[in-house]
Amino acid sequence: MTRHEQILERLMQHLERFKSESGELHADADLINELGLDSVNVMDMLLEIEDEFDISVPINMITDVRTPRQLADVIVKIESGE
Amino acid sequence: MTELCITATPTFNSSPQRLADFATLAEALDYAAEGCTGFNFHDNRGRLLAPLAYVEVRRRALDAARRLKSLGLERGARVAVIADTDPAFMEIFFGCQYAGLVPVPMPIPMSIGGHERYVARLDRLVESCEARVAIAPTHMVRYIEEMPSVDTLAFHGDIEAFRTLPVEEGMTLAPSGPDEIAYLQYTSGSTGFPRGVEIRQHAIMANLRAILASGLAVRPQDRCVSWLPFYHDMGLVGFVLGPMASQLSVDYLGPREFAMRPRLWLSLMTRNRGSIAFAPPFGYDLCTRRLHGSDIDRLDLSAWRVAGVGAEPVLPDVLERFADHFAAAGFDRRAFLPSYGMAENSLAVSFAPLGTGMSLDHVNRDALEQHGEARALDDPEAAEVNATSFVNCGHPLPGHDIIIRDSEGQPLPERHVGRVTIRGPSLMSGYFRDPEQTRKSLGDDGWFDTGDLGYLTSQGLHVTGRHKDLIIVNGRNIWPQDIEALASRLAGINRGELTALAPPEEAPEVDVVVLVQTTLSDEQERAALVKEMAAGIRSEFGIRCTVSLLPPRTLPRTSSGKISRSQARRQYAAQLREAMGAAPTPSAAASS
């Protein structure tokens, strides 16, 4: 399992509670439009990520994130110090 | 944890305290720079990143002023700066003061996936204020580079690029004078078009003097702690300009850092013995909900003497819960200081009396709705009759006036509800390059119509709501928060999950619409909730009500987390039109 896959798996666990009745939770689901996260949920999720992976996610890196897979990309980047 | 040999600026200053008795912000900073206090920035774990004493702020600002002048800008030109909680903001904001330029604090991006929307918003603001310069912290510069209007700028770039501009030695600087514009403060307004509030030096200094000397009665041993964004009036005026003009030290945390870890705010209060901090009710609420047991054991909030509440309607139950929750950490509920203000009056209009906590005025709700009269009830009575209550926001600051007016503009006596109008030395000179809006809200007589409704008592101002949110049924005025409180009680649903509004024209058969977010999926339970709530509201208020259930997290909110009633109303109207198109029976469309 690559680091990216590991991270994605953890993210999907975090997002389990946002599984909607209509849409299935998948790695390319839109966090806001499909899973319905609001700003407070996003903050909570980022908090969990920062604490779990012991990283700091800068604001400018999340404005392009729309899906769990893209969020995993960002975390991998931060971890590898890019 | 990295141990660095840096310490925060001290609480006690080496020079005597002066409370904003200066003609301009530049003069105030000149004096603050004679002491040893200043701004302190903390990271997302609450560690001190950079202490920035006022002497250093001034040194950097003077260099920034010379660099700005080297760009050949005309006097009063606008300098847009992304207002992240960062030392670079201070350098640019105060640099403008020394160069006779006008800084315009711009919002920071907060939302996930919001890249394009954010760039579009920046672009609109830059165009609206006709900025000549746009500066960002290094990690945010790409948003500026992507704005279509970037080509119109004399300079754009990050703070590092800005610092490579030449500083010409011996250049004379002419700081912004008392009658010049000190800064532009953008507010979103109800229409969604940004408006640049124009605050002149004499206005901001008048407001700061009144706030510091009277509203907060600041003293030399005070220390401020803030997570409020620098692009909001409460963050900028209250916690950048206020501490600077009274030479107090401030400890900063970014707004996003607070939203993620509210504990850090209270930890900073504990560690540095903070005595003054403000937040909108949702900030207090976040702390109550997130901090528990061992977090509270580690806190000492006994030095907190001013726990200001502002920027949105004061919710008594939220404050009560906070006070109960943190009593064990030494929080004194008498520290609560309800306040009333808006960017158009620099910041503050009135404060409740210091050291007494929140005081509620209980009134007869029937008289309020039918006659617009706030008839007082004493406490035992309040439990029996149809009652509602409003928080006292105190008397206007010295030199400022409040008059409550009817729809014809005629002054109303005490305990009569009408439009809150204000006058005084802290008012804006207008909305930047928007004479029409300026004329609408700021008459020739110097009175500003705030758009709020309220009444006065011998104790002071009580704000009852926004004029545009009022629900009018057969000449009777109903306040949405009264219906929301009842609906929340009836269904055991949190206040943040529902909103009450006047029906859009698509739903003429009802008097009020209640929108409720719910996770309930069982059809029977959903139907029961709708029925019970509508019946309860009908019997309590005697009005026709429709209840509509929405999926979780769908009520539109403002950037500060408040539910936007006007946007929810538009959203609901669109939904009705869509449903009518599908099945042309209004009753079916209105039922949920």
From TrEMBL, chain A:
PROSITE patterns: CARRIER (PS50075). Pfam families: PP-binding (PF00550). Residues 2-79 form the Carrier domain. This is Acyl carrier protein. It comes from Kushneria sinocarnis.
TrEMBL record, chain B:
The keyword Thylakoid does not apply. It comes from the Bacteria. Pfam families: AMP-binding, AMP-binding_C_2. The keyword Ligase applies. GO terms for molecular function: adenylyltransferase activity; ligase activity. Residues 475-565 form the AMP-dependent ligase C-terminal domain. Keywords: Ligase. GO terms for cellular component: plasma membrane. Residues 52-432 form the AMP-dependent synthetase/ligase domain. SUPFAM superfamilies: Acetyl-CoA synthetase-like (SSF56801). GO terms for biological process: fatty acid biosynthetic process. Belongs to the ATP-dependent AMP-binding enzyme family. This is Fatty-acyl-CoA synthase. It comes from Kushneria sinocarnis.
